[in-house]
Design brief:
This protein is an alpha/beta fold. It is built from 14 helices and 13 strands.
Length: about 300
């Protein structure tokens, strides 16, 4: 089967990244901290990371040479982190049939060993949450449509991909960017490229929420969950993405959206939002949100 490996994608190394790596160590032969080129972790943090795993820097030019990447590649092209993990192992003479990638803001509020062991027996080339056809209105649809007849998408914070499927993704990324140099089109993001490539090549896939229906209730790439004792209690047995402090939660879920609501409709909007987020909030937290909005002059 080769080496079992997971890449921990992080902009730096701090308490959150180290705690997550500590959870992952019993689950994998290799835990690799995948750093952006501009990351400058403190010496002590780097030393702590090296005790838990290995550290690699994502160097795009070494992964897919002679192509022009967009300036926001670190955000848009997360598949380069997977390629960096693959290259890191190959350079050490190791091989893996599958590679996991996890972002540092994913919370494993469950028995991580049991979860990854259950996935280990799955044969699919791609395991990710919410693998589905992309809507024609989705931002990245038109960027990948010229290269894959039917664009697909998936959630990217936690996924597993096979070695052969990752090789195909590398080839597609190089092909796209070589053509983009002259076509001046927007480069596709990671989830559109990886999901579309896997389906176009006929590789197998499965959505994680179908395999683990009780695990992903608090996992979203859009919705924000408050980091409160109530929410943490609710998420026991879950994989969570993303957790925000309450003030950030209020700004994202209420303040930002209130700007697009006329004052006469504020009460109805507030009632709807609190109902939608109800499973995450106890009465005290609901009262805190309303008070913060009033004191902040948003209502």
């Amino acid at each position: 089967m080769g080496t079992s490996a997971i890449g921990l994608r992080c902009a730096s190394i701090g308490p959150r990244e180290l705690a997550l790596a500590h959870q992952l160590c019993p689950c994998f032969d290799e835990v690799v901290f995948l750093l952006d080129p501009q990351a400058r972790p403190a010496a002590q943090a780097l030393e702590d990371a090296q005790r838990l795993g290995t550290v690699a820097t994502i160097q795009p030019d070494c992964l897919i040479p002679s192509i022009g990447l967009p300036g926001d590649w670190a955000w848009r092209c997360g598949d380069l982190a997977l390629l960096a993990l693959q290259a890191h192992l190959r350079n050490r003479g190791q091989s893996a049939t599958h590679y996991w990638l996890i972002e540092s803001d994913v919370g494993l509020h469950l028995d991580a060993e049991a979860f990854f062991d259950a996935c280990r027996v799955r044969p699919e080339d791609l395991l990710a949450k919410h693998i589905r056809p992309a809507s024609a209105h989705w931002r990245w649809h038109e960027t990948v449509a010229p290269f894959c007849a039917t664009p697909w998408r998936c959630d990217f914070p936690l996924l597993r991909i096979s070695d052969r499927a990752l090789d195909a993704c590398r080839t597609l990324r190089m092909t796209i960017h070589e053509q983009l140099q002259s076509l001046d089109r927007l480069a596709p993001n990671d989830e559109s490229l990886v999901a579309s490539c896997v389906i176009a090549q006929g590789y197998s896939f499965e959505s994680l929420e179908h395999l683990f229906p009780e695990v992903f209730h608090y996992y979203s790439t859009v919705r924000a969950f408050p980091d409160t004792p109530h929410c943490r209690q609710q998420t026991d047995g879950s994989i969570v993405h993303s957790l925000l402090p309450m003030n950030d939660f209020i700004r994202k879920n209420f303040v930002a959206k209130l700007k697009h609501v006329q004052p006469p409709d504020h009460a109805a909007f507030l009632r709807h939002r609190i109902e939608a987020l109800g499973p995450l909030l106890n009465p005290e937290e609901t009262e805190h949100i309303v008070s913060a909005l009033i004191l902040g002059g948003h209502l």
